[in-house]
Amino acid sequence: MTETAVARSIDADQFAEVLEALRPGLVRRLTLVVGDRDEAEDLAQEACIRALRYRYRFDGRDPAAWLSVIGMRLSLNELRRRRRVVAALGRRNPPASIPSVEGALWDSLRALERRERAALLLSVLDGYSYAEIGAMLGAREGTVGSWISRAKARLRADLTGGER
């Protein structure tokens, strides 16, 4: 089936139901990425709106992966925007809290480089392969493996107090 044929066969109401069922999981992942549940809710909602609006681009294979890509890209863009705002304000560490996640774990996750954190979460929480994560984040499979390896080493060192 061609891309256009898939797009024509996707009913907007049915697709919206699929997206709504996937939204809670996306919110959990995005909360870990951006550090704020309310903001993650907003980003997940925007991801669903965009997925529905651009459903003609969907290849029909894996709606969860497609929605995750949209949500992760929105989240990474938001983190970049925050850094610019913080730099403009002259602050170094913006306040961020997430009461629903253990403090030490959240602090360690937040300290990771954003691409490492995104790759780790997509791998551990969602079970995506390195190749799938690479496609989502626009990176080579080997780079994804390096990001995940570094993220795990940093988390291990932070949470156990050991060497990396």
What does this structure look like?
The chain is mainly alpha-helical. It folds into 2 domains: 1-97, Rna Polymerase Sigma Factor, Chain: A; 102-164, Winged helix-like DNA-binding domain superfamily/Winged helix DNA-binding domain (Arc Repressor Mutant, subunit A), CATH 1.10.10. Helices cover 74% and strands 0% of the residues. It contains 8 helices and no strands. Helix 2 packs across helix 4 and helix 4 (63-89) packs antiparallel against helix 6 (114-124). The chain is globular, with a radius of gyration of 17 Å. The chain starts with a helix and ends with a helix. 25% of the residues are buried.
The radius of gyration is 17 Å
Tell me about the biggest sheet?
Answer: none
- The CATH class label of the largest domain is Mainly Alpha
What's the total helix number?
8
Any idea what the shape is? globular
What is the helical fraction, as a range of percent?
over 70%
**CATH A-level architecture of the largest domain:** Orthogonal Bundle
Q: What is the CATH topology of the largest domain?
A: Rna Polymerase Sigma Factor, Chain: A
Low-confidence stretches: 1-8, 97-101
* Number of spatially distinct domains: 2
Mean pLDDT: 79
Structural class: mainly alpha
Helix-strand string: HHHHHHHH
Strand content: under 5%
Count all strands and give the number.
Answer: 0
The termini sit apart by 49 Å
Give a brief rundown of this model.
The chain is an all-alpha fold and 164 residues long. The chain contains 8 helices and no strands.
